[in-house]
Amino acid sequence: MSSTSESVGGGRVEPDDHGHDHDDHDHHGEHGQHLGHSHGGRFAWGPLAISVPLLIALLVRNRIGVFDNDDLRLWSTLFVSVSLQALPFLALGVAISGGIAAFISPDFVRRIVPKRQVFAVPAAGAAGLALPGCECGSVPIAGRLISHGTPPAAALTFLLAAPAINPVVLVSTAVAFPNDHMMVVARFTASFLVAIAIGTWWARRNDVKMFERLTSADTTRRRPKWQEFIDVASRDFVHAGGYLVVGAAAAASLQLVVPRSALNAIADNELLSILLLAALAVMLSICSEADAFVAVGLPQFSLTSRLVFLVVGPVIDIKLVAMHAGVFGRRFAMIFAPVTLVVAILVAVIVGQVLL
Predict the structure, then answer these.
(1) H or E segment at 13?
(2) In whole numbers, what is the pLDDT of the chain averaged over residues?
């Protein structure tokens, strides 16, 4: 990649005299689309290409001889149980996300968030609880908040809190862990603390120039609200559903492909367990409304290490890094991702040791 240009979202980007990136086509128009909650289908096609044939195979598994194998039958049972348990919460989550995108303007959040950053950060965290949404939708919403004058620290706090502490996520966690009620409290506490910590860190950093690309008038073309709702909800469902299938398949495969002795050895080592499940959360990119059902499918691991999985996933994973780079710029993603990952792991471990 040359030093004078790079590709973002399929377009060419040329730095201006001040080193900021500008597209060679309509820069404001492109980001108007990003901020309008359109995160594109390109992230969903990979998982979807895997999930559709896999689901078809499982539906007709009784007619396929290969499923006569006991291990494969156990794998399919684990996979189907995780997927079906998570599906209602996933559907509810994307419906709420679509409703927020269509019927609630970012101006509403901007008005209720104080201008002073010392108050704006906790208020934005609370707004994340009141205005739930998936992590995919929170990124463009945060971009619109910044472009409408919300302090960046507050917008980033909302970005982290909304997909992690909303009621749908907490209820799904309670259903997935019926015998470990403190897991819900621990997830809420750790996720909220991570959002506040990152928001406070960014407020102290006060790097306003990084968001200059967003400080433009909103040129998004408004569509009918119900059309917006259907478009956002259906796109999110396909996108998140594909990753759910991949995550469920990974959890089931981990139980059968990896030798039980090796899995138990990792699970017995708390540090290795934490690092492994943090890495899985980043790589699997599972929707926050469904990840608890994947975590409960890993019973060998401690509650603390599974809490790390639940706290890390909604705030930083592979798809989120790509979206951060597309909306806020690559420099932001390179700074934000590692700091968020480290803070999420540390906070989850501390909260897990105290509450679980």
Answers:
(1) strand 11-15
(2) 75
Cβ pair 315, 161 in contact under 8 A:
no
Are 150 and 143 contacting, i.e. CB atoms less than 8 angstroms apart? no
Distant-in-sequence contacts of 71-74, Cβ < 8 A, 24+ apart: 71/256, 74/256
Instruction: Assign 245 to helix, strand or coil.
Output: helix
Q: How confident is residue 85, by pLDDT bands cut at 50, 70 and 90? A: low
201 has pLDDT over 80: yes
Where exactly are the structural domains of the chain?
Answer: 43-355
What CA–CA distance (Å, rounded) separates 329 from 210?
Answer: 8
CA triplet 291, 329, 122: central angle to 5 degrees?
Answer: 55
3-state class (DSSP) for residue 14: strand
Q: Residue 113: what residue type?
A: V
> In the block, which residue shows the tokens 């599906």?
87
Under a CB-based contact definition with an 8 Å cutoff, are residues 252 and 82 in contact? Answer: yes
Task: Give the Cα separation of 113 and 126 in Å (integer).
Answer: 10
pLDDT at position 315 is 93
Distances in Å between the Cα of 70 and the Cα atoms of 75, 112, 156, 193 are: 9, 56, 47, 44
Q: Name the one residue in this structure whose structure tokens are 């309509």.
A: 26
Per-residue pLDDT at 42 exceeds 80: no
Q: Is 19 left (phi over 0), alpha (psi -120 to 50) or beta?
A: left
